[in-house]
Amino acid sequence: MNRTVAEGEAPACLGFDPDPRTPRMRLPRLTCDSHHHIFGPYAQFPMQPERSYTPPEATLADYRRMCQTLGIERSVLVHPSVYGTDLTSLTATLEACRDWMRGVAVVDASVDDATLARLDRAGVRGVRFNVLYKGGTPLDQAQAIGARVARLGWHVQLLIDLGAHPSFYDDWRNFPATVVVDHMGHMETGRGVGAPGFQGLLRLLGEGRCWVKLSGAYRTSALAHPYPDALPFVAALVQANPERLVWGTDWPHPALQTMPNDGDLAGLVPDWLPSEALREQVLVRNPARLYGFD
User: Domain containing 287: what range?
Assistant: First the structure.
């Protein structure tokens, strides 16, 4: 199993594969990568000392090259835990890419309305709560922050392990903002689609109360690429509500023990989304609606 390192002495990470293969099927025009990160340059954007992992630099130029190979035309930059609530890197990148990129920030309860307004103008469309790594905002602040960002039309994004949240449906069904769940719930595939937390996610999704990112199968699978044990989870999510799903690469794949090739990950799309209409919906129309692309 390719599990994530989430505790300890901020171990060094593997670097991304700099030579992505061309996907076996062309992605639709205006495909959006709804989940990626940028790390560095560290001379300009240093990491915080309190962190769970130490990634090598993965710059905007590196990301652009990957997008050109895969055929990605839009993206959503997710602020990583190694920067804590310092949003300097996020805002600089968004301002340089405002025509094709949106962002998800990390804030805490001390953030003021003027800062939220500036982030909104920069292209931020949500805030993330990451309970798996050091550097995230505590989950007990989600309710209050969610109520504030909902006024801007933003969502709250969750990186949690559904295996540890069997009451997920009851905990989040009345949340004041739109909820987006990372990496299909980040739960080990061995728990099965019948696990209470994942069933709660399916129920929320089916009722239109949340969105889910089809991403990060390598973080939960017990098998090598193409991660066949993740396919039943994808199929259950698609069946529950394809109008609330988006897709992401999770580039540059931080805190992994085995590094995937991005072309191979994009090559999973036709298996996960077998019809052209479904691919158009999940890769293009859904993210355009969720993240406010014109």
Answer: 32-291
The kind and range of the H/E element at 190 are: none
Place of tokens 């301002």: 95
Tokens of 282: 């999940």
Pairwise CA distance, residues 193 & 185, whole Å: 11
* Choice among 33, 182, 250, 262 that is catalytic: 250
CA of residue 230 relative to chain centroid, distance: 17
Picking from 124, 200, 140, 144, the residue whose alpha carbon sits closest to that of residue 168 is 200
Q: Look up 271 and say whether it is catalytic.
A: no
In a domain? residue 18? no
- pLDDT per position as a tens digit, 193-242: 999 999 999 999 999 999 999 999 999 999 999 999 999 999 999 999 99
Judge whether 79 lies within some domain: yes
DSSP 48: P
Domain of residue 74, CATH code: 3.20.20.140
The DSSP letter of residue 63 is: H
Is residue 189 assigned to a domain? yes
CA distance 127 to 157: 6
User: What average pLDDT does range 130-149 have in this prediction?
Assistant: 87
**Number of domains within the chain:** 1
Helix, strand, coil percentages in the chain from 3-state DSSP, rounded to 5:
40, 15, 45
Instruction: Note the pLDDT of residue 7.
Output: 41
* Side chain identity at residue 221, one-letter code: S
Q: What angle do CA 124, 48, 15 make, to 5 degrees?
A: 80
User: Which own/partner pairs from 283-287 qualify as long-range (CB within 8 Å, at least 24 positions apart)?
Assistant: 283/27, 283/28, 283/31, 283/32, 283/246, 283/247, 284/28, 284/29, 284/30, 284/31, 284/32, 286/211, 286/243, 286/244, 286/245, 286/246, 287/32, 287/34, 287/74, 287/76, 287/246, 287/247
On whether residue 2 sits in a domain, the answer given is: no
